[in-house]
Design a protein that fits this description.
By secondary structure, this protein is of the alpha+beta class. The protein folds into two domains: 204 residues, Endonuclease Chain A (Endonuclease, Chain A, 2-Layer Sandwich), CATH 3.30.870.10; 52 residues, no CATH class. It is 47% helix and 14% strand. It contains eleven helices and eight strands. It has an eight-stranded mixed sheet with strand order 1-7-6-5-2-3-4-8, with helices on both faces. A hairpin with a 7-residue loop joins strand 5 and strand 6. Helix 2 packs across helix 5 and helix 4 packs across helix 8. The longest helix has 21 residues. About 8% of the residues have low confidence.
Length: 288
């Protein structure tokens, strides 16, 4: 196998990006294994065309856990194997992270195509994705194995880059490519250990994207209308009731239209730093 470049280190400087390296080498790859702390669709859309000829892709991610989620997973540490509840918790945590990632991704047709291709590959079994219950995984390892007729067994790239646009191009990173078969086999052995400990979230990914993100193509007009109402009135719905109970004047009647006026006034104050209050006599200006 020959390459257009023979770089060993990739720092994302011009002509030395990790994305360039993958675009150059993935066309020779039969199996591609990824171990990262973060997997982002912003990275997937840049590479999915290079994945078309790859036979199998396995992606293993650590969980980006908040304190509550971490405590849930920690309960399983004393067990010899993960129980059903822990499996469900891991899938839920990963699903929530996936929804946030899709919602915050760039509103771009190319990004959307990448996400849809990711789901297609998951459905076909071409891609498997698992989440490891440990938040201590910070490794960034990309293991490539070539076809049997190739003179090389494969290569492993490791360093600082997560599977994301920032890791592939935008950030200043430091990654190294190892081509010695001993190094590749060692990395593969370590990957297999972690892979066997992890929870399969492939089906959950498909369900999450299809049902909980804007890529759901089965939404009815009525459901879309309800979503519009929720988004429009979301801030009003989230106003803490204590706002009224703490400041409610003694001896006044609780009237909904006055409460709504307080909410509207507070929103205007928060946005503009001031509000005009004007109305006819007897509608509650004093209350407000």
């Amino acid at each position: 196998m020959s390459h257009d470049t023979d770089l060993t280190f990739f720092t994302n400087e011009p002509n030395a990006t990790l994305l360039d390296r993958f675009l150059d080498t993935l066309k020779y790859v039969r199996y591609f294994d990824v171990l990262v702390g973060y997997f982002r669709t912003s990275g997937f859309f840049q590479l999915y065309k290079s994945f078309e000829k790859i036979e199998k892709i396995r992606i293993l991610v650590g969980l980006n856990l908040d304190r509550k989620a971490f405590q849930i997973i920690e309960k399983s540490k004393s067990q010899t194997s993960l129980d059903f509840e822990t499996h469900v918790n891991i899938k839920t945590i990963y699903g929530n992270e996936l929804v946030k990632e899709v919602e915050n991704s760039e509103d771009d047709k190319i990004v959307e195509d990448g996400i849809l291709k990711f789901i297609e590959y998951l459905k076909k079994g071409k891609i498997e994705i698992k989440a490891h219950p440990s938040r201590n995984i910070h490794a960034k390892v990309y293991i490539s194995r070539y076809h049997e007729e190739d003179r090389d067994f494969g290569d492993v790239i490791t360093g600082s880059s997560n599977f994301s646009e920032s890791g592939f191009v935008a950030n200043r990173e430091f990654n190294v490519q190892l081509k010695n078969s001993i190094d590749v086999k060692f990395a593969l052995e370590q990957f297999e250990i972690l892979w066997n400990e992890a929870v399969d979230v492939s089906d959950h990914c498909v369900e999450t994207v299809n049902k909980r993100t804007y890529l759901n193509d089965t939404i009815t007009p009525y459901e879309l209308y309800l979503k519009f109402l929720y988004e429009y009135f979301k801030e009003d719905l989230s106003i803490d009731d204590q706002l009224f109970y703490k400041n409610f004047p003694h001896g006044f009647m609780e009237l909904k239209y006055q409460e709504q006026a307080v909410i509207n006034a507070k929103k205007i104050l928060d946005e503009y730093g001031g509000v005009f209050l004007a109305d006819v006599v007897g509608l509650g200006k004093t209350y407000i």
